[in-house]
Predict the 3D structure of the following.
Amino acid sequence: MMDEAHAQAPQVKSAVRTLELLEFLATHEGSHSLTDIQRALGYPKSSLHALTRTLVHRGWVETDASGNLYRIGIRALLVGAAYIDTDVVVQLSRDTLDWLAAETGETVHLARLDRRDVVYLSTRASKHYLRPVARAGRRLPAYAASLGKALLAERSDAEVEELLPDRLEPLTPNTIVERPRLLADLHETRERGYAIDFEENTVGLRCLGVALHVENEPVYAISLSVPVARMTPEHEERMIAALLNAAQRLEALILPARRAI
């Protein structure tokens, strides 16, 4: 697997530490003291101090007025924006995501599988007052989101086991944290052709997800997020039809473009 190849490749310690520090600050909201960061990452405090000082100077990390608390810096936005601007699937999906949002009136997401998580790449917000809030760059455990479950269902049970963390942490009381139950849910997803998230990452929100077959092993998926108050059986039926339609449109559009690259 790709992750195993990366793990076996020679790594530069300073580069690894820099990336792990940036990833920590990017995935932990708010500001953090040097002691908190050192406790989380386990680096020698002297090395960590020199590293943070360099990153602050370069604008990748910022400090508060006291200089004692650290958070991700604005230059980190360059990387995320550049990825979204150059991702072919993101670019080619824009019109179809617009259509799906207009057709359903609900919030639309495009995401990509990144190891054990799904990362949101593009969102179209619902025009309803009662609507979910999401942003590009948001990261969720794959097992707790319809986007992720749609992608996990494209893999064998053995492959799913490799992707899952040792412990499935609940995000809500409805998150599936028992492995046998999750595997059964993925089997049902394969049979019906789309995944359902029953308030598993956000209470009050039902999500439907479909994997996009635009490469040999799907890593992209689209979803619709609907407050449970609006998800009547009739509305859900319309949402599923529109979502599957959008997936077919995207596959017909993206596959030829990717083959031409």
